[in-house]
Write a structure and sequence with these properties.
5-stranded antiparallel β-sheet, 39% helix, alpha+beta, Nuclear Transport Factor 2, Chain: A, 4-stranded antiparallel β-sheet, 440 residues
């Protein structure tokens, strides 16, 4: 009986110990949960996910406006800082502190904090310019931001006189649509691919300052084609290598085949490229891209095939590869029309100094009998045709499966005006292929 009492007492004691232990554990867990939810006891860096979204046309022109203000502000010899002083001399009338403040005002708060930037040390952190510059945007990406509009931008800064590249930069541009303000975050040199750029610490608002305000630019189709031609000119003159890689791949390989050949083309057409201005343009919607066809005042073609904004390829003539429009027109034409279309390609190549294309239009027998080399053909053509031609189509007929066209070629060159008549003989092959000969 005593043993039974003892067992009961031990069980009661054991039960009490277990209950007390469980109560202590619950209190501890409750305390831990409470502590973890107390902001004062914990430091957490919250990162917002950033995803790429499609770039809109308006995005490009708006960001372009902000980059232009940024590049102009980097110019500490900017003309807006100059005027006539008390002595009547034209000189800088703005102090260094104001120039520094103007640059400082355009930088993002994130960039300022991370790099400990002050107005006084701004020149140690930002590369300034000392004369007016051009810039060309090479790539732009829209980054998702729930508070502001944020863009990654890759651009080059170029000398206004010779278009040489002074600097290449990757930046993040933040746009506050509510305040109509923007900020710039220059990126380290480690970024050499715009697709690698992401933003985690996003700004929520941009305070309005004296020079960080933007307005939405007006935008028309003509603005778009002018911008494309301007980009072609600036990039080509600044870096033929960059533009070579922007050429349509099939066109590039067929027309040039190498960067060296393209550089030769640029040198030969340097003046035409510098002075190119939009004369006519056409916008054609294709299945997978939009085609901007631009003709300058000298009749040169610039064709931009745009898949998305800032995702485009360039073609510089209408004869090297057949455009969808040409194929449609060719297939609906009769034999006379097809021969005329092919002859136009032949003479377009000659006017473009592309003697290699014109030489390859000739039939093998005709080449072997008259022009054993490209050089001999080029010398002959240069003697009878110049860079500005007018073609008149006269008599057309078919002979034994071959087609002949008598045409009159007028050289419009002011120094060497002349007119000649020649008969061209053409064999039409499969597709748009043809073989050509003419009377010597």
């Amino acid at each position: 009986m005593k043993k039974l009492k003892l067992i009961i007492i031990l069980l009661i004691i054991l039960t009490i110990v277990v209950l007390v232990s469980l109560l202590f554990v619950n209190k501890k867990e409750e305390s831990e949960i409470t502590d973890s939810e107390t902001p004062e006891n914990i430091e957490v860096e919250i990162e917002e996910e950033v995803a790429e979204v499609l770039l809109e046309r308006s995005d490009y022109f708006t960001v372009n406006t902000c980059i232009r203000e940024y590049v102009n502000t980097l110019n500490i010899k900017n003309s807006k800082y100059y005027g006539y002083n008390e002595e009547g001399e034209y000189a800088c009338v703005v102090g260094e502190s104001e120039k520094k403040e103007n640059i400082y005002n355009l930088l993002s708060n994130k960039y300022i904090k991370e790099n400990n930037i002050t107005i006084n040390n701004i020149y140690s952190n930002i590369n300034t310019l000392e004369k007016s510059m051009l810039f060309s945007v090479l790539d732009m990406k829209n980054l998702q931001n729930s508070k502001l509009k944020t863009y990654a931008v890759h651009f080059i800064i170029q000398d206004m006189i010779d278009y040489s590249i002074i600097d290449e930069q990757y930046v993040v541009v933040n746009i506050d649509e509510k305040n109509l303000t923007f900020s710039i975050e220059p990126l380290d040199e480690e970024y050499r691919n715009i697709d690698e750029i992401t933003v985690n610490k996003l700004e929520e608002t941009i305070t309005k300052k004296e020079n960080n305000i933007f307005t939405y630019p007006t935008m028309t189709n003509e603005d778009v084609v002018r911008e494309y031609l301007s980009l072609y000119k600036k990039i080509t003159l600044g870096s033929p290598k960059i533009m070579y890689n922007l050429l349509d791949e099939e066109y590039r390989d067929t027309r040039f085949g190498s960067l060296a050949k393209y550089k030769e083309y640029v040198e030969q057409n340097l003046q035409n490229i510098k002075t190119a201005m939009v004369d006519k343009y056409q916008i054609v919607e294709q299945d997978e891209y939009t085609q901007y066809i631009i003709i300058d005042k000298k009749g040169n073609y610039y064709i931009f095939n745009e898949k998305e904004v800032m995702d485009y390829s360039v073609i510089l003539d209408t004869y090297t590869i057949d455009t969808p429009q040409f194929i449609e027109k060719y297939n609906s034409a009769n034999a006379q029309g097809r021969m005329a279309l092919n002859l136009q390609k032949f003479f377009d190549a000659i006017e473009n100094n592309d003697y290699n294309y014109a030489y390859n239009c000739l039939s093998e027998g005709f080449k072997n009998n008259n022009f054993a080399s490209l050089e001999s053909f080029e010398a002959y053509i240069r003697g009878i045709c110049y860079s500005d031609l007018e073609i008149e189509y006269e008599e057309f007929e078919e002979k034994s499966g071959l087609y002949t066209y008598k045409i009159i070629i007028t050289n419009l060159d002011d120094n060497n005006p002349s007119t000649i008549q020649k008969t061209f003989i053409m064999q039409l092959n499969e597709g748009t292929d043809f073989e050509l000969s003419f009377d010597i």
